[in-house]
Amino acid sequence: xxxxxxKYRDPETGSETTRWVVDVDFQRPDGSRERVRKTSPVQxxxxxxxxxxxxxxEILTGRTLASPAPENSTSGExxxxxxxxxxxxxxxxATYAKANNKISEQTSKQSILDHRLVPRxxxxxxxxxSLLDLDTMKADMLEHEYQxxxxxxxxxxxxxxxxxxxxxxxxxxxxxxxxxxxxxxxFDFLDFDEFERLVAxxxxxxxxxxxxxxxxEAGLRMGEMLAxxxxxxxxxxxxxxxxxxxxxxVVGSPKGGDRRSIPxxxxxxxxxxxxxxxxxDLIFCGEGGEAWTxxxxxxxxxxxCVRAGLRRIGAHVLRHTFCSHLxxxxxxxKAIQELAGHKSMAVTMRYMHLTQTALRETIKLLESHGxxxxxxxxx
Length: 379
Hints:
DNA polymerase, domain 1; 3 domains; elongated; hpI Integrase, Chain A; mainly alpha; 3-stranded antiparallel β-sheet
């Protein structure tokens, strides 16, 4: 009989299902034989019988048949060829990454692929990965003393590629990604006295004074400083607009993608007014209008730190200083988040433990049991 019921086991869940299938073994007049085994589109006995007659008629009349479905398949479609990880990684970078990631993120993902993922998994089929593969990679990277953050960045890129393949229906499932727990990182910042010493050391270099105040009193990232143009500074309203970010000469949106407006302190506004020029649209540029580079800013910061007798710092320490000083002076976390352009409140909350330091210093005022200072109010 060419119509029968067959049992199939789901490879993922292990559950069994029963399906009506058509198994036709047909001999042509010339003696050649053709066998077609397909799942009936109508899962009843009568439906399968009707489908079996249709299959025989198609063979007899020579009409084109769809390829026979595998026995564990519910359709007559051919199984798609699954690409290798290396081949799909190129597709991912040319499509998803290019459309959704900034150039800095694209560069980071490409580096992770070139140095860690493709050498290890390049020849593997996309649907062959399991949790064991992920845990083995993590264990190997830990053994080679990679930092947990580096391992998590590698896992994040790996996860994004496999989930993209799943969204495109190239693979049926993605193994569960378990990221390493990372201890809260310590960050460096200047205390109030150190920051004032640094500002004082720039009196002979007004551009560097503006750089330090943009970082310490407005919270700008280095790339945001480099992309700052004359249109970003409104001296009348006293606001500074952060529209763009320069990443090694490539100008794009700020980190997080959102533009923000920051009220300027009086001395920041004065510092920016001192360096106004007509050399070009950028605030920080050379005599010929050429843009400053990250190297230019870092050299200047190092020079000023030495002059002020301070440890050498990078521009991001100035940004940490901005957030830390606001927290220590009692600013609301939401206000700090908006001024700094933090995408997540969790980033802002790293600074809030400093408010406890400020509170403890305030309480210490009560330790003085002597006569309080005259208030000027007479009874």
